[in-house]
Amino acid sequence: MPESPEVDSLGGFLREHLTGRRISAIDLEEARALKTRARPLSELHGHAVTGVRRFGKHLSIDTDGPTLLVSFGRAGWARWRDDATDAEPTGPDTPPVIARVGFDGGAELAVTDAGDWLSLGLHVVDDPAEVSSVAKLGPDPASDAFTRADLDAVVTGRRKQLKALLQEQETLSGIGNAYSDEILYAARLSPVAHASTLDEEERAQLFAAIRDVLGGAFEARRDVPPAELKAAKVAAMAVHGRTGEPCPEGHDAVRDVPGSKGAAQYCAACQTGGVPLPE
């Protein structure tokens, strides 16, 4: 799943390459992806791009007319070609194209979805806040405006496991499965601990980990080409996706979070007092 550091990097790339360009062609290859059925993608045709903004894990491509909001969902992404006549990547691991947007000068942006079920969504709107998943977003923990008080406000009293809480977009926007694992490892907190049980010191650890992990990821992904972002993210993980490998501190082997079917990881020595979580 793309998360805020990768989506932000993609947004920066598109901002640089799209601003000022006019949309010359629209091709929707998977009709289910369009969520605003009353407003077809053809509304964007002929309009010039004025900017690109990130909202959590969503990107808006703003024009001098409507806005195209792309919700990447579980496995959505984007592929850029400077010239749409260039050969496209092929192979069994190449995700299917959901829609193509052509621009003057011959460039093309293709949005893709690699999931077993379609999770990417496209919206033609006047304001991204018209989309409920954007309107309901919680504070952005990567923002300079995010404070310890903001974290306390969404954590204190919540009877919800930390792993799930960090991924709840209405609580904190932009964090997904991978970075929630990384944040909890950095904070030395159990993924299944309830937020309401955290004391003052543990809340401070969580806040510092959120800022450090996300801040480092934003910096590291900046200027990485879109096609290389997934590999860069995977390579940077300390525990996520590293089942059986030693944790970076060398204290224990990384384990799967019970019930996650191998999709989430933790270190018992660093996060649960040396006692593995019960299966």
Helix amount? 25-40%
Structural class: alpha+beta
| Domains (count) | 2
Please compute the radius of gyration using only Cα atoms.
Answer: 20 Å
Sheet of most strands: 4 strands, antiparallel
CATH class of the largest domain: Alpha Beta
H/E topology pattern: HEEEEEEEEHHHHHHEEH
Estimate what percentage of residues fall within beta strands: 15-25%
Quote the CATH topology of the largest domain.
N-terminal domain of MutM-like DNA repair proteins
Low-confidence stretches: none
Total helical elements: 8
Mean pLDDT across all residues, rounded? 96
CATH architecture of the largest domain: Alpha-Beta Barrel
Q: Between the first and last Cα atoms, what is the distance in angstroms?
A: 25 Å
Strand order of the largest sheet: 1-6-7-5
* Quaternary organization: single chain
Number of strands: 10
Q: Name the overall outline.
A: globular
Instruction: Say which CATH homologous superfamily of the largest domain is assigned.
Output: MutM-like, N-terminal
